[in-house]
Structures are given as C-alpha cells and as structure tokens.
Design goal:
One of its GO terms (biological process) is methylation. By secondary structure, this protein is an alpha/beta fold. The protein has helices at about 25-30, 40-50, 75-80, 105-110, 125-130, 150-165, 180-190, 215, and strands spanning about 5-10, 35-40, 60-65, 85-90, 115-120, 140-145, 170-175, 195-200, 210-215, 230-235. It has 2 domains: about 5-120, Cobalt-precorrin-4 Transmethylase, domain 1; about 125-235, Tetrapyrrole methylase, C-terminal domain (Methyltransferase, Cobalt-precorrin-4 Transmethylase, Domain 2, 2-Layer Sandwich), CATH 3.30.950.10. The protein is elongated, with a radius of gyration of 20 Å. It starts with a strand and ends with a strand.
Length: about 240
C-alpha cells in the first residue's frame, strides 16, 4: 500500500486573522484528512474550526507534538501515513518547519519516502522581509540571539558586519517578553546609520512595521513587550 501524503498547513499568526491566512485549497485539504500532527492542540482545533472544517472534531486523530512529546522514536506519528492516510502538520503559528520543531517531522517523512506538500500561508519571516524594504535577494534568518548581554552585543555587531560585507538582510527574533531589552541592546550597540526594521504583530489589527536608521529609532522607542516581533538589520549605504 502506498504511503499517505504529509501536508504542511500554516496557522494564522494572530487572533482574528484566519480570513487573511487560508486559501480555498487549504480549506479543501483540511476537509479531506482526519489526522494531524500538531504543536499545540488547542490552537490547531481553533484554527480548523475557523478555517471551515466540516468534519466533526470528535472524529479527528490529533497527535500532540508539543515540547514534552518530541520523542522521534515514537512511531504513532507516522502509522497513519504508513497506512496510506493523508496527515496534516501544524505549528502553533505560521508555517510548520520554519523556526519550528516540525522540521524534524518533515525530515523523517523524507527519509521514509513519504510525500511532503507545503501549503500557502503566512510566514512572519517572509512578511517582515517583504515589508522592510531591505534586500530580498540575499538574507539570513538567525532565530534567537544569545541571552547573555555581552554575547548578544557581539552578535549584533557581527550581523551588522555581515549586512555590509554581503549586502545581506539579517533577521532574528526574541521571546516576546524580552523584546524591549533586545531593542534596547540593538539601539545601544548598532551604528547610528544602520537600518533597523521592526515588524510586530504581523497580520493582527495592531500590526506595526517600520524601517528607520538606528539614530531615528533612538528618538522614539516603541514598546514591544509581549508583541511577537521580527527584527531586521541592513546596512545604511542605500
């Protein structure tokens, strides 16, 4: 029996943003499958309902891939796929596999010879890059920077150097409740001419995206506490 297909299903980045986040094909897909591997079951079930799921949720098989259930030796995640059933993979928000532990599921699926199909949906990294005005030809996403202040300041200087040397946009994130200390460190460490884009609450009603030089940001510093944010650094030569 041929294996099923693993569908990578993006989840909205913000509450009340479902209508901005799914396509007719995504809706058709979720109504054709009854098994999911998810990072957050509550988030996943809410999204399926908002997206127009017609299958009773009591009939769904939900595999919890939260931080306490990531033992890849467990075969339960793949039994349905091996039996020929299509399965959906969902992150807590955004695209599965992008800054997301679901990449491990996708990697194993490839090694098992399972077909992987990514669906169109919101990615905070790409949305921020699109809106920044920075280079979209060459960019690097670094995930989280070091928590230690000295190491973090050193890393910020490294990113500035890479932006200049490679003409490359540098993207990174921070845990939302540590955004303000991160921004404070950037404004203290970076060159006044370096360009910084702050993209917060993407797709939400409170969305905030602005690009300024470090010198201009220092004149008025936004409050980013507990607001999901992408930081982007680019050189000030353009």
């Amino acid at each position: 029996m041929p294996y099923g297909t693993l569908y990578l299903i993006p989840v909205p980045l913000a509450n009340e943003a479902a209508a901005k986040s799914f396509t007719p094909y995504l809706v058709d897909t979720i109504n054709s499958i009854k098994e999911y591997i998810v990072e957050n079951e509550k988030t996943a079930r809410r999204f399926l309902k908002e997206a127009g799921l017609t299958t009773p949720q009591s009939e769904l098989i939900i595999h919890d891939y939260g931080k306490h259930n990531r033992d890849m030796s467990k075969a339960d995640f793949f039994k349905g796929l091996q039996a020929g059933n299509n399965v959906g993979l969902m992150s807590e928000a955004g695209c599965p596999g992008v800054a997301d532990p679901g990449a491990e599921i996708v990697d194993k699926a490839h090694r098992m010879g399972i077909r992987v199909v990514p669906l169109v949906g919101p990615s905070s990294v790409l949305l921020a890059l699109m809106a920044s005005g920075f280079s979209g030809q060459s960019f690097t996403f670094h995930g989280y920077l070091p928590i230690d202040k000295l190491l973090r300041a050193k890393k910020i200087k490294e990113l500035e150097s890479q932006a200049i040397k490679l003409d490359q946009t540098q993207l990174f994130i921070e845990t939302p409740f540590r955004n303000n200390p991160m921004l404070e460190e950037i404004l203290k460490t970076a060159n006044p001419k370096t360009k910084l884009c702050i993209a917060a609450d993407l797709t939400a009603a409170t969305e905030f995206v602005q690009t300024k030089t470090i010198a201009d940001w220092q004149k008025k510093v936004p409050d980013l506490h507990k607001r999901p944010t992408i930081f982007l650094i680019y050189h000030g030569n353009k």
